[in-house]
Amino acid sequence: MPRSSETVAALASALAKAQAELVNPEKSLTATIRNGRPGDGERSFRYAPLSSGLDIVRKTLGQHEIATLQTTAIDQSAGMVHLTTTLAHASGEWIASDWPVCPVAETANPQRMGAALTYARRYALFTLVGIAGEDDLDAPDICMPAPVTGASTTGPSIDGLQFPAPTRGNGRIRDAAKAAGRTVLLTDESAALRDRLLSEISELASQDSAATWAGDTLPAKNTLSHVQLERSPRMADFALWATACETAFWPPGTFLRVYDANRRSAVEDVIEADPVAAFVREIMAVRSTWAGRSSDLLAAHIAAGEDVPERAAGWPRNPRALAGRLRRCQTFLRTVGIDIAFSREGRMGSRMIRMTSLTKSASTSEGNGRHT
User: Fold this and answer.
1) Paired residues of 42 in beta bridges
2) Which tens digit of pLDDT belongs to each residue from 301-356?
3) Domain that holds residue 96
């Protein structure tokens, strides 16, 4: 449950500025979930460790005079261990969120309690500051609605075809259950139904009528021939719908081709507008890898004559700021074939940056921390 000081104006202003600089931590770990149910396979997802998230959050929020605090307390009445995560601003304003960790009985097993506390700290902190630390997953345990006794098992009839009755739930159904008992129309019938549904959409006059129409035709929509994408792009649900409908307007494959081109164009615009991203792509055009510290990259920029006023606008003035800018453009550069990894090396734990061109052969000479 969120709590806060009487006013949070100064904290909100500082947090908004910090969030503009925050980046999602690298998802370097993989977890596997075993449901133990017949027919259910393993589900794996990537997630970021608490340590990498803390490293990013502390540095970015600290620059805006925001401190993070996480404390635990035992609720004797509920028999639970609770975690309180607080963001405190130099003005004295604060906001806090409480998160249940585990039953008090788990304190007898420090390892189990420690694991639960680590998860709670990660979820609570990432949620409070607005960053993502793991892949999005459907929730199979809450997706299957309970059957309603005495309810009809058939739904509306369209053009003489009988469709199953709609079920209540959150719209996400496990693939195994979705495939079982699902009626799928033949290709020609599916195309005819699709054209009919599209024509009905164009005739909808209001949001209320659209909502009613969507509920009534959902069973029919679920009988359309299944569309499979070769890959799942961002906004995969939207891409699936658009691909299913595109042949009514354009040749097959048009949507994904245009979607990829538009996304690529947007990424190019971002890189061209960011002097750090543009410089990284420039130096990686002549090599397959580059390794060094952020201070080395800053020195390479100066050595290349990039400190002239018209080229230095927007360029970070210190290694720490440069590392932050690299994290912000990390995703965009990977889209154009440049992978950036951050790590600590050596006894002193020096912060290293490794950049790899995913499109070049391994025979290209490796950079030595200087732009030549």
Assistant:
1) 34
2) 877 765 444 445 678 888 888 899 999 888 889 888 999 999 888 778 788 999 99
3) 2-137
Lowest mean pLDDT among 21-30, 136-145, 181-190: 136-145
**Across all residues in the chain, what is the average pLDDT?**
76
Q: What is the DSSP string of 159-211?
A: TTEEEEPP--SSS---HHHHHTT-----HHHHHHHHHHHHHHHHT--SHHHHH
Can you spell out the DSSP letters for 205-254?
A: -SHHHHHHHHHHHHHHHTTSPP---SS--SSHHHHHHHHHHHTTTS-TTH
* Phi and psi angles of residue 135, each rounded to the nearest 5 degrees, phi first: -70, 150
Q: Among candidates 231, 230, 233, which has minimal Cα distance to 262?
A: 233
Q: Are residues 47 and 162 in the same domain?
A: no
pLDDT attached to residue 280:
92
Give residue 42's pLDDT. Answer: 64
In angstroms, the CA 21 to CA 326 distance is 11
Calpha distance 369→371 (Å, rounded):
7
Domain final residue, candidates 189, 208, 226: 226
The pTM score is 0.39
Percent of the chain with pLDDT over 70: 73
Q: pLDDT tens digit string along 76-97?
A: 888 888 889 999 999 999 999 8
First to last CA, the chain: 54
User: In sequence order, which ranges of 285-329 are alpha helices (DSSP H)?
Assistant: 294-303, 309-312, 319-328
Instruction: Judge whether 335 lies within some domain.
Output: yes
Amino acid identity of residue 368, one-letter, is: N
Residues 119 and 94 in one domain: yes
Q: Which residue type sits at 156?
A: P
Distance CA 123, CA 118 (A): 9
Contact 219, 158 (CB under 8 A): no
Tell me which DSSP letter residue 68 carries: E
